[in-house]
TrEMBL record:
Protein name per UniProt: TetR family transcriptional regulator
Annotated GO biological process: negative regulation of DNA-templated transcription
InterPro entries, A to Z: Homeodomain-like_sf, HTH-type_TetR-like_transc_reg, HTH_TetR, Repressor_TetR_C, Tet_transcr_reg_TetR-rel_C_sf
Disordered: region residues: 245-312
Length: 312
């Protein structure tokens, strides 16, 4: 092949092509009663009832009343089946995010994902082998990015934010789903049923920092929403990153040089004055951004009140 001749584009993985409907499907199935959709639905039912480990091509075929070889006419491997199951679960319906509040939109998106994953705790056990490429997962990402439209972030920063909250939702949804699946009582889950025993075992000499937490009851309390706390702190972190200028605030090589020179010549009167002016300008910028957020919030509330009044 010559240097100027283009290399052929690699074909999509078979399961991805199936999910998009661009892979060749069998023209004649057994009694034409079998389909990829039925196979995926049956596999999900097995995983919901017995866990991901119970899913096999043979078991899915048996549940549908066909031979294992019949399934291979539609889905060529168990790995393909797992990817199609993943895409099916990602096909959840989420409300449209607000146009002017990225934080509310991203929170809404994360909570919706957690609820879906709670219903299918095995989802968090699915292998991750590449970036999402199937249609439902791509649609889910598209919705998250739509929530981030108002945020002054680069494309890479927005994708990093989506990955951050998606990973959190995957972990929390899996844990909460497993707890619900176990059938344990709330007292067993929180550990409050064993609080007095734990308090006698977790002593201050062996566990100096954990002991007071156990004694106070915080360790076994189910009154505090740990998930909500964690999500809010992640959103706080993104907000602070935005407030501090995002990627534009990241130090460059020239910034490093200026920082070294500033430290070296910090006693110079003009350097001191310039550094003070910079700090004041940065504070003014933060204050201006806060005023802008407050104004947007007030305007949104006025619009909502006017809409509610008109509806009455």
């Amino acid at each position: 092949m010559s240097d100027t001749e283009a290399s052929p584009e690699p074909a999509l993985p078979h399961a991805v092509a199936l999910s998009w409907g661009v892979a060749e499907r069998p023209q004649r199935g057994p009694k034409r009663e079998l389909s990829i959709e039925r196979i995926v639905d049956a596999a999900i039912e097995i995983a919901d009832a017995e866990g991901l480990g119970a899913v096999s091509m043979a078991k899915v075929a048996s549940a549908l009343g066909f031979t294992t070889m019949s399934l291979y006419r539609y889905v060529t491997s168990k790995d393909d089946l797992l990817l199609l199951m993943q895409d099916a679960i990602a096909g959840i319906e989420l409300p449209e995010p607000p146009d002017d509040d990225w934080r509310a939109g991203l929170k809404q998106w994360t909570l919706g994902n957690v609820e879906a994953l709670k219903r299918h705790p095995w989802y968090s056990q699915l292998p991750i082998t590449s970036v999402p490429m199937t249609p439902n997962t791509m649609r889910l990402i598209d919705t998250a990015l739509r929530a981030l439209r108002p945020a002054p972030l680069t494309d890479n920063e927005k994708m990093a934010c989506v990955l951050l909250v998606a990973s959190y939702a995957r972990a929390v949804g899996g844990v909460q789903g497993s707890i619900a699946e176990s059938g344990a009582s709330p007292e067993e889950v929180s550990g409050s049923a064993y609080a007095s025993v734990l308090a006698s075992l977790i002593t201050a000499d062996r566990f100096p920092d954990l002991a007071p937490v156990v004694t106070s009851g915080a360790y076994t309390s189910d009154d505090y929403d740990d998930f909500a706390f964690g999500l809010e702190r992640m959103l706080d972190g993104i907000q602070r990153y935005i407030d501090e200028g995002g990627s534009s605030a990241a130090p460059t090589s020239s910034d490093d040089t200026e920082a070294r020179d500033s430290a070296l010549y910090s006693s110079d009167k003009r350097v001191k004055e310039a550094a003070k002016a910079r700090r004041e300008a940065e504070k003014a910028l933060r204050d201006a951004r806060k005023r802008e957020r407050d104004a947007l919030k007030t305007a949104r509330e006025r619009a909502e009140n006017a809409k509610a009044k008109a509806a009455r």
